[in-house]
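Quick check before the chapter quiz. The format below is the same one you will see on the exam, so make sure you can read both the input and the output lines.
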Amino acid sequence: MKNLRCVSCGYEFPLSDTILKCPLCGSNVEVMYDYERLKEVSNEGLFEASRSNIWRYRALLPVFSEKCIVSLDEGWTPLFEAKNLPERLNVSSKLILKNETINPTGSFLDRGSSVLVSRCLELGVSAIACVTTGNMGASLSAYCAKACISCTNFIPKLVELGKLYQTVIYGGKIIWCEDVDDATAKALKACNKGVYPALPNNPIFLDGLKTTAIEICEQMNWNVPNFVVVPIGNGGHIGMIWKGFWEMMQLGFTDEIPKLVGVQTARCAPVMEITGGIMRRGREIRSVAVDIAIKKPLNLYLAVRAIRESKGTVIAVSDDEMIESVSILAKSEGIFAEPAAASTVAAIKALSDEGIIERGDEVVCVLTGAGLKDPFTARELVRRAREVCGVLGDVEEFMGFRRIGRTKMLILEILKEKESYGYAIWKELRRKGRRISMPTVYQHLLELEAMGLIERIPRVVEDSRAGRRNKVLYKVTKIGLEILESLLRGRAGNTKA
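Here is the expected output.
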């Protein structure tokens, strides 16, 4: 490592592990290396072929100590030609898939988490703060668990449950916030008290993401494709993919950078608004692809640089197109990706329709996250398959799979009407025909609280016999209301079917 450099004004300053943006202009900063010295190192010194993860590129990663490397075997994911997808999409280009869904926690973010947590271990950090809409929190919580580092996740209330479950299981602490801006403000406040800032714009974290591009180069025998298609959320992945290709060019392994195509959701496309691109209108579903529906990307400058410097573009696709692409990808190539990841498949169709990609072009689609991270989209797709629609509910009921079953739905409906105490909820459930014990009611409440669907409100009440005493009132959260509405829509759809 050499220093940190602003991606906008070019200002260079000494390495620091707490600077997240340029002190002069406020843009993103990135880790820079002494590329002239690196050119003098043999290929064997740069690429450790004995490793089958991102640490084969250790010479280009910001961690000094071998013994501090925290790895779950992330990276070196498959890159292969899609045999059936081009025909299904009616495109003539050569489609190549980079399958990031098989990373340890199911997303590309494991690349950055491994590097950042390794650096934290090197620095003796004991606690980190993370801002996440889902995948990043799950990923960092897993790596922090292995490193015995405390991980506090500041999460907006609109989050996909599969990712929330992962985060909780790995031991990550959850602090609910109103939105991404609120989460960022609270995380930075925690960082001012000595907690390490593991935010999406942390340059150490970001540097791990560039390994996607280095792998593509190596897996394609140091040739580069014509296009690389990447979802844009906070903008770090596409920004660092550009950097990875740029570094390979600086070191003489390649002689060009492919055109980078960013994909955003049509209801939230800030990078497209700046750089221009293609807008695809369609039905929008509020709970789909939360990870790429970010109004103020923390790595906006990185994403814009990547698009402009590579002469690429941005495609904004509809939620319906993303859901359809999840199904097409699964049925064509046997890969189950989440909607944000499958957005790259939706973008291929748009690129072909616009004549941007042509016969003979090599196009790499980066599939960034696994499908089971978003159980509601999975269930929506199963519901659309009419041949199994009729038995879906019975199967889930029989297997005990419907964790948000009838009792939990009734509790959410009760709390939707008004805040209530455990005993009052028990009485209302009995009135509605659910005769269960009080301990069972509290078990349901505990599970709903762990899911983030309800929250406790401590109250001091006056009691004629016991005087003042503490009681707990339960209240449905914003995400709880959204989940309830989604379940009620699903129940109505099944009834109609």
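If your answer matched, good. Confidence is low (pLDDT under 50) at residues 386-392, 394-402, 493-497.
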